Amino acid sequence: MAEDRDGMVVYWRPGCPYCMKLRLRLRFTRLRYTEVNIWRDPEAAAFVRSVADGNETVPTVSVAGHAMVNPSKRQVLDAVRAHAPQLEAS
After folding, report:
1. CA distance readout (Å), 55 to 28, 49, 58, 85, 87
2. Is the pTM of this model over 0.90?
3. Which candidate, 73, 90, 82, 65, places its Cα nearest to that of 20?
4. Is residue 15 helix, strand or coil?
5. Cα–Cα distance, 90 to 75 (Å, whole number)
6. Which residue intervals define the domain Glutaredoxin in the entry (predicted)?
7. Model confidence over 5-63: pLDDT tens digits?
8. How far is it, in rounded angstroms, from Cα 90 to Cα 87?
């Protein structure tokens, strides 16, 4: 499963401290999203490379088709409000 055009996907890999930090922070939000380990999903790894100048830079987050490489929690929340407000749980 690569990029979700309507939802949010967090691309990560094991051992990445930046991924652990963002994933932990997002767990305390009420957002609905999918997490994908790029080491287990070649299609997801290819998507990350396509938006990260050929690199497998993670975390990479796609919000309704808008990709962000190594975003902060604030950047993710802003993108959700702008592009996919339906992801915020009521």
Report:
1. 29, 5, 9, 29, 28
2. yes
3. 73
4. coil
5. 20
6. 9-66
7. 779 999 999 999 999 999 999 999 989 999 999 999 999 999 999 999 999 999 999 99
8. 9
Number of Cβ atoms within 10 Å of the Cβ of 39: 14
Quick one: which of 36, 31, 30 has its CA closest to 48?
Answer: 36
- Evaluate if residue 3 carries a pLDDT over 80: no
Question: What SS3 class is residue 66?
Answer: strand
With residue 51 as reference, give the H or E element that holds it. Answer: helix 42-51
Q: What's the first-to-final CA gap in the chain, in angstroms? A: 26
